[in-house]
């Protein structure tokens, strides 16, 4: 639609997740009218993301150092590990302020159609962590917090199969059910069924 660099920028922005053609066009024209200093700050931030961000040696979360702040925190419960797909999932769980253990970031979910198998994820590192005592503490519970979709369920099932032979290890899965403020009539059968099977006494 547009010529030269403007269209190239729109095309590149449109490849970002969650950015449609109209949003890409809006962002491109906003950048065109932005001050040079603002553009330079954006360029530097993008450059630093590729050069300055490392992944935690312990859990695989994004970090500024070789060990992330959560894994360095001495107040964390070393016996609890919550397994998530991506670093953004760590932040989602942290916002609840309910979990006091550590994390393990897989780096995605099993998706054979896209060529993502167990070897492309950090599953081997998880098994090594569970088999290792840290500061005299063994991991006693692994909470599987993968997404409640086809890939997430396949990953959870695979992990349960891999972890069930560890003696004394409890493997749990995040409960799924009805959202707060939702109406029963609008819930799909799968969500409602899970809410029923996961009910608890009050």
TrEMBL record:
Q: Which GO terms describe its biological process?
A: DNA recombination; DNA repair
Domain of life from the UniProt record: Bacteria
What PROSITE patterns does UniProt report for this protein, alphabetically? RECR, TOPRIM
Q: Does the keyword Kinase apply?
A: no
Mind telling me which HAMAP family this protein's record contains? RecR
Stated role: May play a role in DNA repair. It seems to be involved in an RecBC-independent recombinational process of DNA repair. It may act with RecF and RecO.
Q: What is this protein called?
A: Recombination protein RecR
Identify the species of origin.
Lentzea xinjiangensis
């Amino acid at each position: 639609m547009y010529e030269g660099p403007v269209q190239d920028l729109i095309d590149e922005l449109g490849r970002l997740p969650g950015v449609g053609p109209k949003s890409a066009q809006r962002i491109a024209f906003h950048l065109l009218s932005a001050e040079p200093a603002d553009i330079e700050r954006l360029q530097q931030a993008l450059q630093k993301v590729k050069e300055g961000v490392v992944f935690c040696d312990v859990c695989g979360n994004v970090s500024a150092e070789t060990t992330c702040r959560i894994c360095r925190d001495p107040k964390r419960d070393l016996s609890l590990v919550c397994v998530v797909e991506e670093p953004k999932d760590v932040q989602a769980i942290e916002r609840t302020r309910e979990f006091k253990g550590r994390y393990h970031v897989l780096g995605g979910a099993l998706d054979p159609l896209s060529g993502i198998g167990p070897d492309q994820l950090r599953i081997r590192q998880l098994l090594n962590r569970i088999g290792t005592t840290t500061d005299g503490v063994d991991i006693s519970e692994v909470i599987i917090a993968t997404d409640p979709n086809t890939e997430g369920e396949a990953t959870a099932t695979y992990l349960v199969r891999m972890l069930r032979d560890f003696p004394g290890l409890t493997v749990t899965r995040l409960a799924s059910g009805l959202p707060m403020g939702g109406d029963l009539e609008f819930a799909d059968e799968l969500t409602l069924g899970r809410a029923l099977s996961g009910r608890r006494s009050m």
